[in-house]
Amino acid sequence: MIEFQSVSKRFPDGTQAVDDFDLVIPSRKTTVLVGSSGCGKTTLLRMINRMVDPTGGSIRIDGDDIAGLEPVALRRRIGYVMQNSGLLPHRRVIDNVATVPMLEGVPRRVAHARALELLDTVGLDRSLAERYPNQLSGGQQQRVGVARGLAMDPNILLMDEPFGAVDPIVRADLQQELLRLQRELGKTVVFVTHDIDEAFLLGDQVVILQVGAHIAQQGHPKQILANPANDFVADFIGAGRGKRRLSVDSSVPSAGDDYLLVDGSGYAAGVVEAPGGVLVGAGSGPKSRSVSNKTDQAGDA
Ligand SMILES: Nc1ncnc2c1ncn2[C@@H]1O[C@H](COP(=O)(O)OP(=O)(O)OP(=O)(O)O)[C@@H](O)[C@H]1O
């Protein structure tokens, strides 16, 4: 568990990036920090591994105040995946993945064997191990970035807009891959994005932020979609939602009479209350039923 307690960050030039921020990030779940550019998402993420130190408050990991931990050692046990993968261009894929374990004293042969396993884990063919990053597609580079983030088998994986720079189809693939990985590995993932659809798809807990990292709302996607806390949240989650074919995802546990609506890509799109009232038509599969009104429920939710 990661706990932010009254955390603030004022940069030397006076910018108050984070202002009195409190949050509990549960273990083995995915928490997504989502908000517009400049609201403080990356600063929050980087405070978890001490790439940035707070100017006020404290951060605890499993009860330990990280201010008392050595930053480099802390960073080595927390995976970090960034936009544009951050791979070392002059090193082969296998060496990129094996670098940190080898720095930690893992013998080269063992580190390489583990790196090949990690390529399997992230869905990459082992034949790519000998290539250099610029010989990979953007999506493949991001997968290598995820493999590298997992190399020390960390409990915590920080992901800063990891899929921001790839095209929408590859992005959808990578998102599904992360969902699969998370089902298998159960890491504590903290994921930053400005894309609310991505946040709702990936997050067990979604935290919608405003400038200064003020929390506009936090909760399960279903709770946020069903009850936006204010106009800001309603606007934020409504933005860009076009007309889409929706269906009920009955694999998501429903609370009371609520059902989660998903679109054809599996994105959470809204909540309906009474199945008899708004659902029509036969099912398109064992897990879903079609919904007649494609826009209104998403907009209203
Ligand atoms: N080193 C720094 N010095 C001064 N101000 C900074 C520094 N790093 C970030 N900031 C400012 O802090 C605020 C929060 O920045 P941060 O990068 O955390 O936002 P973000 O939500 O991740 O934005 P984006 O989505 O654009 O990456 C912004 O106003 C930014 O300009």
Task: Summarize the model shown.
This protein has 301 residues and is an alpha/beta fold.
Describe the structure.
It contains eleven helices and 15 strands. The strands form four sheets. It has a six-stranded mixed beta sheet, sandwiched between helices. It has a four-stranded antiparallel beta sheet with strand order 2-1-4-5, covered by helices on one side. Helix content is 33%, strand content 28%. The chain is globular, with a radius of gyration of 20 Å. It has two domains: 2-224, P-loop containing nucleotide triphosphate hydrolases (Rossmann fold, 3-Layer(aba) Sandwich), CATH 3.40.50; 242-300, no CATH class. Helix 3 packs across helix 4 (108-121), helix 3 runs parallel beside helix 5 (138-149) and helix 4 (108-121) packs across helix 5. The longest helix has 18 residues, at 168-185. It has helices spanning 41-48, 71-76, 93-103, 108-121, 138-149, 168-185, 196-202, 221-226, 231-238, 275-278, 296-300; strands at residues 2-10, 16-25, 30-35, 56-61, 64-65, 78-82, 156-160, 188-193, 205-210, 214-219, 246-248, 259-263, 268-272, 279-285, 288-291. With 301 residues, the chain is of the alpha/beta class.
* Spatial arrangement of strands, main beta sheet: 6-7-8-3-9-10
- Extract low-pLDDT stretches: 277-301
H and E order = EEEHEEHEHHHEHEHEEHHEEEHEEH
**Helix and strand composition category:** alpha/beta
The radius of gyration over CA amounts to 20 Å
Shape: globular
Oligomeric state of the chains present here: single chain
* Tally of helical segments: 11
CATH architecture of the largest domain: 3-Layer(aba) Sandwich
Give the distance, in angstroms, between the N- and C-terminal Cα atoms: 30 Å
User: Tell me, what is the CATH class of the largest domain?
Assistant: Alpha Beta
Hetero groups in this structure are: adenosine-5'-triphosphate
Largest sheet: 6 strands, mixed
By CATH, the superfamily of the largest domain comes out as P-loop containing nucleotide triphosphate hydrolases
| Overall tally of structural domains | 2
Protein name: ATP-binding cassette domain-containing protein
Keywords: ATP-binding, Nucleotide-binding, Transport
InterPro entries: AAA+_ATPase, ABC_transporter-like_ATP-bd, ABC_transporter-like_CS, P-loop_NTPase
Family: Belongs to the ABC transporter superfamily.
